[in-house]
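Worked problem 6 (solution included).
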Amino acid sequence: MASVWEVSTLLDALQRDLQARIDPQSWAMIGIYTGGVWIAEELHRRLGMSTPLGQLDISFYRDDFSRVGLHPQVKASNLPFAIDGARIILVDDVLYTGRTIRAALNEIFDYGRPEQVLLAVLVDRGLRELPICPDLAALRLRSNPDDYVKLRGPQPLSLEFVQHPAKEQQP
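Solution. The predicted structure is:
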């Protein structure tokens, strides 16, 4: 079964939640390539943040790098503000195992020690391999490992969720 969500409605929810929790002028934002950057660009614009948007490519920080090798579209990370003492909103599109966020935090801490990091995601799939939880999630799904969640974009942004039937247990 496939579902498609209106991303602008989900972005509205994240924007409201962020505005209720933070002063956009005293925070910085970092998006994780690729989908997290697309989401962060829109949130950054909507919130009218004055600090430039940061972009993070965690390819070299992945714990499976030695197994999967270099991704053909590695982009340079761009953190145009001082990390030390910064209050950072880290943005990703889909939170699944937690490994991408762990890698992102490792890279951020290589640049300095932020005062605070708040995690905002468009979709929380609810499955984890690491104890990482979003502070804000526009959509929380009950999913299984065979399900597929994909953000397509950047223009227009669309979110597709393909849910596979649960596999029957063998006796």
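Discussion: Residues 8-141 form a domain with the Rossmann fold fold (CATH 3.40.50.2020).
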